[in-house]
Design a protein that fits this description.
Blueprint (H helix, E strand, L loop, with lengths): L1 E10 L5 E9 L5 E8 L3 H4 L24 H6 L3 E6 L10 E2 L3 E2 L2 E2 H13 L4 E7 L4 H11 L8 E4 L5 H5 E2 L2 E2 L2 H7 L13 E2 L1 H5 L2 H12 L2 H4 L2 H8 L5 H7 L6 H4 L3 H4 L7 E6 L3 H13 L4 E6 L13 H11 L13 E5 L4 E5 L7 E9 L3 E3 L13 E5 L11 E4 L7 E15 L5 E9 L5 E10 L29 E15 L4 E7 L25 E6 L7 E7 L4
Parallel strand pairs: 3-4, 3-8, 5-12, 9-13, 13-14, 14-15
Antiparallel strand pairs: 1-2, 2-4, 6-7, 10-11, 15-16, 17-18, 17-27, 19-26, 20-25, 21-24, 21-26, 21-27, 22-23, 22-25
GO molecular function, one term: dipeptidyl-peptidase activity
Protein name: Xaa-Pro dipeptidyl-peptidase C-terminal domain-containing protein
Pfam families: Peptidase_S15, PepX_C
């Protein structure tokens, strides 16, 4: 039998109370607790007790039921404590902005919540945390505050650099709208108290009007009805309004950025993320590199975001917590620090850092007739003609144009592990566009699987001092319109991946400025997991001559591996 403590009132240091439910097995024995915190509502999480795990495209799949398998947590000898952050669910207080609720850092609330849980008679004073996505990010906030009773965390699928959660390469991503408002397979935030826009709270009415007018002047925004609606009527879409009016990185995103806070963490951290969501994988690896504590990184198999209610990764999570919270020596700390599921050959590779194998960056050149090759075009410059595509806005067409290049079938298993870069010399006839790259592993049968992606808004082409060969970084702190008719080199970051291309398989790369709403990859993701299309007609011309060697720079695993 299970004991349930409903509607607990957890006091914060400023007098606000957060709502929580606690689940544990019968008996008076105190147990370690696993805390889950989010704005999605504890009542929604309780559905994990009655709804079997659903895989997409089940209509019962709900991307916000992410606090974990309550029955399993209780069976394993833990107390599962699920709480609502302030301003959501049954909790008091206001929520303003993103990770700063009513002027109170969410990590501070998490500290108070954890210490309250540790002092309850059903808890033995030892606490960990649980949950994927937003729940995972909350663990980093909590650990950075160093609550004494928090002994370890297991972070699955967290979102860290908040700008990179909302704009990929400067291109707006619609998924945060679904997570906040409840659209297409996500119930969204449990807005039961007043939520406030950080922009409306901070700036004068005149400044807000100026920002709104500036965003409405962007043809991409102006062509998307939902964005026009939110900008004119923000009152019920506060968080989404803030995101739309902050199209470049800066103070609003950096406040309470988990990557910046991670240096404060001194307890053991296990990071888990699946391939196929390149942007969150990038942030997870960045967080792993910043951490200075006992740590492990696991990059799991494609595809991501499958089972809801979330029940995945529990076996590893309980091994982690049995070791750190119960003192059971199960050997988990004797295993390698990094574990990666390599797509293609579908095996696990291990090491002490990412990538787990030594790599060397090699170029693959864009060639005529849609070819990718290790050598540039062998003919003269006059033969290496440019190629391109014209994309009309989706207001007048539903066809997404693209260019495609492919290697010859690999004659031996070819391993590519790490981040990469695409150097594209492109002329456009407008001040801006999107560059969207998709990399596929194509079998001889024609069946293909997504390998990774890359995004860049043309006006965000500036690189910063972190950039190295094959590893570009864009600050995204300003937008610089492109001079139409000029040939510019655009360096696009290719998100981390690990893939072994088997004999007979090809690497296929597609370039587009919009993405199809349904294809081999998007059909595996929730609705709204796509990016803001270009709102104007744009002609893209890609150059491949001797002066403009458009190419990919990719991390090939060294032959001695």
């Amino acid at each position: 039998m299970m004991v349930v403590h409903k509607d607990l009132h957890v006091p914060m240091r400023d007098g606000v109370h957060l709502a929580a439910d606690a689940y544990h097995a019968e008996g008076d024995e105190p147990r370690p607790a696993l805390v889950a915190l989010s704005p999605y509502g504890k009542e929604l999480q309780a559905l994990a007790l009655t709804i079997p795990p659903q895989k997409r495209p089940s209509p019962l799949w709900d991307g916000c039921i992410e606090a974990g398998d309550i029955s399993r947590v209780v069976k394993e000898g833990y107390v599962h404590v699920i709480g609502d952050v302030r301003g959501s669910g049954g909790s008091e207080g206001e929520h303003i902005g993103n990770y700063n609720a009513g002027g109170v850092p969410l990590g501070q609330d998490a500290y108070d919540f954890i210490e309250w849980v540790a002092a309850q008679p059903w808890c033995n004073g030892v606490v960990g945390m649980i949950g994927i996505s937003y729940f995972g990010s909350m663990q980093v906030f909590a650990a950075s505050e160093r609550p004494p009773s928090l002994k370890a965390i297991f972070v699955s699928g967290g979102h860290f650099d908040f700008y990179e959660t909302t704009y990929h390469g400067g291109v707006m991503w619609f998924m945060p709208r679904a997570a906040r408002e409840g659209r297409g397979g996500d119930s969204g935030w449990a807005f039961t108290h007043r939520h406030k826009s950080r922009m409306l709270e901070t700036y004068s009415e005149e400044e807000v009007k100026r920002r709104v007018a500036e965003r409405l002047a962007d043809p991409d925004v102006a062509a998307w009805p939902n964005l026009v609606h939110v900008l004119n009527y923000p009152i019920h879409h506060e968080s989404w309004f803030d995101i739309i009016t902050n199209e470049v990185d800066g103070e609003w995103y950096e406040e309470q950025n988990p990557i910046n806070l991670a240096k404060n963490i001194d307890i053991p951290v296990y990071l888990q993320i699946n391939q196929g969501r390149g942007w969150t994988l990038d942030g997870t690896i960045e967080l792993f590199d910043v951490l200075n504590c006992p740590k492990k990184l696991e990059i799991g198999p494609y595809p991501p975001m499958q089972t809801r209610p979330w029940v995945d990764e529990h076996d590893t999570m309980f091994r982690w917590y049995d070791y750190w919270l119960k003192g059971i020596d199960n050997g988990i700390m004797d295993e390698p620090s990094v574990k990666v599921h390599v797509e293609g050959t579908r095996h696990w590779a291990t090491g002490e850092q990412w990538p787990v194998k030594d790599v060397e960056y090699r170029p693959l050149y864009l060639r005529s007739r849609g070819k990718l090759a290790f050598e540039p075009e062998p003919y003269g410059v006059e033969v290496a003609h440019p190629e391109g595509f014209f994309q009309a806005p989706l207001t007048i067409t539903d066809k997404v144009e693209k260019l495609s290049w492919a290697t010859e079938p690999f004659e031996k298993v070819t391993s590519i592990h790490g981040v990469g870069a695409a150097h594209l010399y492109v002329e456009i006839d407008q001040p801006d566009t999107n560059f969207i790259l998709r990399f596929w592993d194509e079998a001889p049968s024609g069946k293909r699987q997504l390998v990774t992606t890359g995004f860049l808004k043309a006006s965000h082409n500036e690189l910063d001092e972190r950039t190295s060969e094959g590893n570009p970084y864009h600050p995204h702190t300003r937008s610089e319109p492109v001079e139409p008719g000029t040939i510019n080199e655009y360096v696009i970051r290719i998100y981390p991946f690990a893939n072994d291309f088997r004999v007979g398989h090809k690497l296929v790369v597609e370039l587009m400025c919009n993405e199809p709403l349904v294809d081999d990859h998007n059909s595996l993701l929730p609705p709204d997991a796509f990016h803001l299309p270009v709102g104007r007609s744009v002609t893209h011309t890609v150059y491949r001559d001797a002066k403009h060697l458009s190419r990919l720079v990719l991390p090939f695993v060294s032959v001695d591996h």
